[in-house]
Amino acid sequence: MVFDQAYWYLNIIPFGKTCYTNLFYNILICSDLTELWSATCGQQAMSAHELASKAASLALTQLRHVENHATLCQLQRDIIGYDKLLVAEREFIRLGCVYKHSSKGLQQTASVFLFSDLLLIASKSSSGHFRAHSVLPLHRLRLEPSDLPHSINVVDEESTVLISMSNDVEYSGWWESLSDSIEAAQDLRTLVDTQLTHIDNDTENTDVNTNVSTSNALSYVCWHRATSVTSDHLHLALRSQLSGYLLRKFKNSHGWQKLWVVFALYSLFFYKSWQDETPLASLPLLGYSVSAPSPTDGIEKDFVFKLQYKSHVYFFRADSNFTYNRWTEVLQTPMMQSRHNC
Questions:
Q1: Among 131, 222, 133, CA closest to 173
Q2: Beta pairing, strands 79-80 & 130-137
Q3: How many domains are there within the chain?
Q4: The CATH number of the domain where 187 resides is what?
Q5: Which of 5-14, 134-143, 271-280, 292-301 is least confident?
Q6: Could you read off the pLDDT of 138-173 as tens digits, one per residue?
Q7: What Cα–Cα distance (Å) separates residue 94 from each residue in 7, 56, 74, 97, 195?
Q8: pLDDT score for 268
Q9: Got the DSSP string for 101-168?
Q10: How far apart are the C-alpha atoms of 153 and 145, rounded to whole Å?
Q11: Do 221 and 316 have their domain in common?
Q12: What does pLDDT average to over the chain?
């Protein structure tokens, strides 16, 4: 139930981890050389500092490129009806769930995928994919406010698309992302292929469906929880990882289960032990909050933290105060707040 997201995460490890390691050590070297330079005013220390700074900057640039390419590859697997996402220089900006209004006034749930040069609007198909319905070049678009709450008119040369968001935070985030991306695209005016790919029903339900797993990929979680994520959030997600043994307890259960828990890409993956390759289950954390148990929860153990999304509640128990603080610190991210600014 987690393989698409786990595949995405594991795919970037060979090169992505190398970039992270190079960046980390270059930052340490820069810090040490700065102190040495300040103490000795040596020309060699200054030259070494400049070289390490350039290496760190290059590693960061390479890391962003790897993350963006991995994101485009994952989204191309998630989307059918448009097979031209993997284009050089294209950057992922934002994805999420919105409400699209038809010409007859009907409101339909839609997924919107924003890139540096185009806006793709899709619906969730019976196969679990997102089926593209329209691809709009950004340099031809402009935004207009709507009388409806949390709504934006996306105006093309030939049509207008009215979309609504679930709250003020989502509305502000989408308005800012769209405005900035449209402005940047108008300066570049990149040629965009907007032709949709024909997919018949048999192909949608068989051949394409064999490679999709819908439970954990961020695009599917955003769909079910009416939220969105940005490229900055994904960058943070890839840097925020933690693993270790925890005891897990459900809201209405009595016992605790010891599991090896991996936190990656804003999801918890549960294993029987650290040696297992396949997770038993997973928990996407978009929208979850992390806190200490309340008195009404009836938890009398030490080092316990609580994860909650609406009526879904989970308790996790660490083996020490240090481990407890480490987990709650890592889990306290903007992505997990119930009213985050995505």
A1: 222
A2: parallel
A3: 3
A4: 2.30.29.30
A5: 5-14
A6: 999 999 999 999 999 999 988 899 999 999 999 999
A7: 21, 26, 14, 10, 21
A8: 92
A9: EPTTS-EEEEEEEEESSEEEEEEE-TTSSEEEEEEEEGGG-EEEE-SSTTEEEEE-SS-EEEEE-SSH
A10: 6
A11: no
A12: 81
Strand ordering across the sheet containing 242-250:
281-284, 267-271, 257-264, 242-250, 312-317, 304-309, 289-291
Q: Where in the sequence is the domain holding 224, given as residue range(s)?
A: 82-234
Contact in structure between 33 and 4 (CB atoms under 8 Å): no
Residue 138 sits at the vertex; the CA angle it makes with 191 and 107, to the nearest 5 degrees, is 130
- Phi and psi at residue 184, to the nearest 5°: -65, -40
Structure tokens at 214: 């819908």
Q: Which of the 8 DSSP states describes residue 273? A: S
The answer to whether residue 30 scores a pLDDT higher than 90 is no
For 248-260, what is each residue's pLDDT tens digit? Answer: 999 888 899 999 9
Asked if 318 and 327 count as a contact pair (C-beta separation under 8 A), the reply is yes
Across 253-277, average pLDDT: 92
Q: How far apart are CA 7 and CA 76, in angstroms?
A: 14
In one letter, which amino acid is 104?
Answer: K
Look up residue 291 and give its two tokens: 């806190």
Residue 341 in domain: no
Provide the 3-class DSSP secondary structure of residue 270.
strand
Burial 185-213 (b: 16+ CB within 10 A, else e): beeeeeebeeebeebeeeebeeebbeebb
Query: What's this model's pTM, rounded to 2 decimal places?
Result: 0.77
Rounded CA Rg of the chain: 23
Q: Is 319 part of any domain?
A: yes
From 198, 217, 234, the end of a domain falls on 234
Give the residue with greater pLDDT, 298 vs 25: 298
